[in-house]
Automatic annotation (TrEMBL), chains A, B:
PANTHER family assigned: CYTOCHROME C PEROXIDASE-RELATED
PTM field: Binds 2 heme groups per subunit.
One family name in Pfam for this protein: CCP_MauG
Official protein name in the record: Cytochrome-c peroxidase
Classification via InterPro entries: Cyt_c-like_dom (IPR009056), Cyt_c-like_dom_sf (IPR036909), Cytochrome_c_Peroxidase/MauG (IPR051395), Di-haem_cyt_c_peroxidsae (IPR004852), MauG/Cytc_peroxidase (IPR026259)
Residues annotated for heme c 1 binding in this entry: C68, C71, H72, H88
Highest taxon, organism lineage: Bacteria
Keywords: Electron transport, Heme, Iron, Metal-binding, Oxidoreductase, Periplasm, Peroxidase, Plasmid, Signal, Transport
Amino acid sequence: MAAALMATTAFAADPFPADLRETALATFKALPSTTRALANNPITSEKIVLGKALFFDPRVSASGVFSCNSCHNLATGGDDNLETSIGHGWQKGPRNAPTVLNAVFNIAQFWDGRAEDLKAQAKGPVQAGVEMANTPGQVIATLRSMPQYVEWFSAAFAGEADPVTFDNFAKAIEAFEATLVTPAPFDAFLNGDDAAMTSEQKQGLTLFMDKGCSSCHSGINVGGEGYYPFGLVKRPSTDVLPEKDKGRFAVTNTFDDFFVFRAAPLRNVALTAPYFHSGKVWDLKKAIAIMGTVQLGEELKEEEVELIVAFLNSLTGKVPDVAYPVLPAETTATPRPVSQILGK
Amino acid sequence: MAAALMATTAFAADPFPADLRETALATFKALPSTTRALANNPITSEKIVLGKALFFDPRVSASGVFSCNSCHNLATGGDDNLETSIGHGWQKGPRNAPTVLNAVFNIAQFWDGRAEDLKAQAKGPVQAGVEMANTPGQVIATLRSMPQYVEWFSAAFAGEADPVTFDNFAKAIEAFEATLVTPAPFDAFLNGDDAAMTSEQKQGLTLFMDKGCSSCHSGINVGGEGYYPFGLVKRPSTDVLPEKDKGRFAVTNTFDDFFVFRAAPLRNVALTAPYFHSGKVWDLKKAIAIMGTVQLGEELKEEEVELIVAFLNSLTGKVPDVAYPVLPAETTATPRPVSQILGK
C-alpha cells in the first residue's frame, strides 16, 4: 500500500517512461568520473600546470594579443560567442569557434575533423594566418626566452634532453584541455538521479530520441562522434551553409564528403551561440527548427522545439574551477610582438 | 661579546646603512594591509564579484573581443606587454597601457591623470573608438539582457531602484581593481624584515634615493603620485617622446604642462615592458639609463643601472589569487557583436 502510494506520487509529480534512462543509455554516455587517458600523452599535474599557462598566454600569438582562451574562453562556454573568430590583423576566421569544453571526447577536432586529437588541433590556430599567425620556431623562441617556462617544460617532460618543443607545447595544452569537463544534470540523470532533470527536460530527451536527433547527436558529447551531410534531406539556405565551404571534402577529397561536417557536440550548447559552422544562427530555437527541416525533413512544432531546448539546457554543466595563472615574465631575449599583417 | 659577534656577522653578510629603512620610510610607504577605502564607493564582496565578472567580460566591447583584462592582463603584470594596445578594428592606442596592479594608489589615472580615480578611468576605454568602441547605452543593454548580471547588480547595489547603470558598472570594476594589490619584498623590508631584500637590492635602493630618482618616484607606488616634465634636464629622442603627444597639456591646457606626465608607478616594473608612455623602450636597463640622462642629467654607470634594476626587482609582488569567472550566459536579447570600424 505504501509502495503503491509512493509510486503514484512519483508518477503524478514527474511522469516519464520507466525505460527512459535505459533507452538513453543505449545512445548516450555520462561523462566519466576520471580524466580520459590521452594517446601518447600521459597526463601529469606538471603537464596540466604548463598547459594551463600556455592556454592563457597571448604571447604564443605573433601579435601578443590572442591566447587559446581568446577564442575558447572558459568564461563564456569555452568559445567566443562570435559568428566566426576575429584574429591577427582583425581578419575573420572561416568557421565558428567550437567549444573547448569536453572537446577531448570528440572523435576528432575542428568542424571537419582534420585534426585527430587535441594535440594536433593545438598546432593549428597558432600557425593559421587569420588566427595567431605565428610559427613553431617563433613560439619556441618565445618560450625558451623565459626561464620559468623552461623549468615548467623540464618538469612536465622530465628526462627529455630538449623538452621545449612544439610537440610538447601541444601535448601540454592537450593535457590541460582534457581536464575541461563539465558534468551536467543529464549526467546525473544517466547516473541514476531521477530528480536531476525536470519533467520538460525528460520530455525533451524523449523527443530528441524519437525524432531522430540522436541518430547523429549521440555518445558522451551528444554529438562529435561522426560525420554527416549538413542538409541530409534538404539543403539549408546559403547564409547558413555558404557554398564555398565544402566541409569535410577539403580533408578527404571524396565527393561523398561535400558539405559533410562533424555532428556538433551539444554539451553546453545553450552557452555557445551563434550556431552552425557558419555561426549565422543566434537563436537556439531557430537552430533546432532548421535541423528539423534540413536533417529530419520535418517542421517541428513550437512546443516540440521548446521541449528540445529544455533537454539541451540539461547539458549545461559545471565548468571546472580554474585559477587564473600568473605567467612567466618576459626577458630581453623574448621576441617582440608583430602586429603587421603579412604582405601588408 | 655574543652581541658584538652577531653584529659583525650580520654586517659581513649584508652591509647596509643602519638608517636605510628609516630613510626609505621618509619617501616610500609599504602597501597597507587592508583594501583601501574608495571615495563614494564602499567595497563589498558583492561588488567585487560583479566587478571581477565585468573586468573579464569581452562583451562590454562592441566587437565582443576585448575585456578590461585584454590590455590589463592579470597574468602578465596587469598590462599587455605591447608598445601600445591593439583595439577595435586592429587600431593602435596612442599610449602604452599602464598596469592595473596597485593602480588604486595612483593620484589619478592614465598617463596624463585625466581620470580622477578608477571608476572614472573604467568608463574611458569602453567608449574609446580605438579600444572597445562601445557606448554606455549598448553596455547597459548587454548587461540587462542577462538575468544573472541583473541579479549581481541588484545584490551589489541593493536598495537602488535601477541598479544596472553605467556608473555602477564603473564602481563595481573599481571595487574589484582595488583588490589588485601585490605585496613585494620591498614592503616586507619596509615593514621590518631585513632579509626580505638582497644586498644588491638595498644598494640599489640607496642609489635610487641618492641619485634623485625618488624625487619623482616616491610614495606607496614608487611613483604615480605627481606630475613631472619628461625631459626635465634634456629632451628625450623623438622616438621615446613623440612630439605630437603633449602629455598633460591636453588635460590642463596649461603651457607648463607640455610633455608633463604622471611619474610612472614602478611596482612590478620588471613585468611591464615596454616602457614609457610611448612604449618604445623594451629593456629596463635602457629605460633607467634614459631617465638618468633626461631627468637627472647624469650618465649612470652600468653597475649603477644594474643595482637600480636589482632594487626595482624587489618591487615585483605577489599577484592575488583570482578564480577565473564563469560569466552569465547570453540571451536572444543580448546585442550582437559589431566588428566593423565606424565610418568603414
